Amino acid sequence: MNMPLYSWPSLTSLKVGLLANMVFPPEDQQIQSPRPLETLRSLEVKSDYGFISTFSLPARLDCFTVVEELVISNCSNIVRWPLVELRCLARLRSLHISHCTNLGQEVLEGSSSEENLPLLQLERLSIQFCDSLTRIPILPTSLEQLDISHCRSVVALPSDLGNLAKLKELYVLGCHQLRALPDGMDGLTSLEALTIRECPKVQNFPEGLLQRIPTLKTLTIGGCPDLKCIGRVYHEYLLSLELSMLGSGI
């Protein structure tokens, strides 16, 4: 169907899928850039056509400047990080990308090996089931939760991971090609929950992350044979702390 987007000025949540075709004023009627959809906070884009319908024309991106939550799923036509498309979403706080099986196959000509995710207010990032993805862009320091799950081709996490002083939760699951965690993770001063599961090639924790283990509230390790000893060290620490508290009458 054709959807005249501006006919719903109070729209707060929008899902764009297979049969959607958002209609904007013709270019010859646009004296200025399209005004933002001021009440729209949540945007979900699903399927190849949904992504094209939403992001194909640069003029449309100005409509989504107040969006705070974005979900992109099942878009096989995304072969690179949509950095240009994301740059207009200055207020975005939550980004979830899943089942985009070709994401990461193409690198923009002239781009550096590590690109920056241009979302300065982003707090939650989830990337799941993106089979071709090998690397993650440099992340904004505003991030509080990071979930990288079942991206079986990822070989490295962002090198700036240790700079995320606000990060509270880190989940890495099913990344079968991941061999190591980056150095400098002693900078994760707010980290409370850490989960590493089904990453069999990760052999050890960097020294900086080992320093953070005693301050964690939750540590989950599974399917990582060489990391079992880390779990034992953590549990022994908790046991000694509990005994110490009992002995002091706390």
Protein described:
- This protein is an alpha/beta fold and 250 residues long.
- It has 2 domains: 1-67, no CATH class; 93-247, Leucine-rich repeat, LRR (right-handed beta-alpha superhelix) (Alpha-Beta Horseshoe).
- The protein is 15% helix and 20% strand.
- It has helices at residues 48-55, 83-86, 207-212, 228-247, and strands spanning 2-4, 13-16, 21-23, 42-46, 69-73, 94-98, 124-128, 145-149, 169-173, 193-197, 218-222.
- Strands 2-4-5-6-7-8-9-10-11 form a 9-stranded parallel beta sheet. Strands 1-3 form a two-stranded parallel sheet.
- Strand 4 (42-46), helix 1 (48-55) and strand 5 form a beta-alpha-beta unit.
- The N and C termini lie far apart (65 Å).
Keywords:
250 residues; alpha/beta; Leucine-rich repeat, LRR (right-handed beta-alpha superhelix); 2 domains; 20% strand
What's the arrangement of secondary structure elements?
Blueprint: E1 2-4, E2 13-16, E3 21-23, E4 42-46, H1 48-55, E5 69-73, H2 83-86, E6 94-98, E7 124-128, E8 145-149, E9 169-173, E10 193-197, H3 207-212, E11 218-222, H4 228-247
Parallel strand pairs: 1-3, 2-4, 4-5, 5-6, 6-7, 7-8, 8-9, 9-10, 10-11
Give a summary of the structure in a few sentences.
The chain has 250 residues and is of the alpha/beta class. It is built from 4 helices and 11 strands. The protein folds into 2 domains: 1-67, no CATH class; 93-247, Leucine-rich repeat, LRR (right-handed beta-alpha superhelix), CATH 3.80.10.
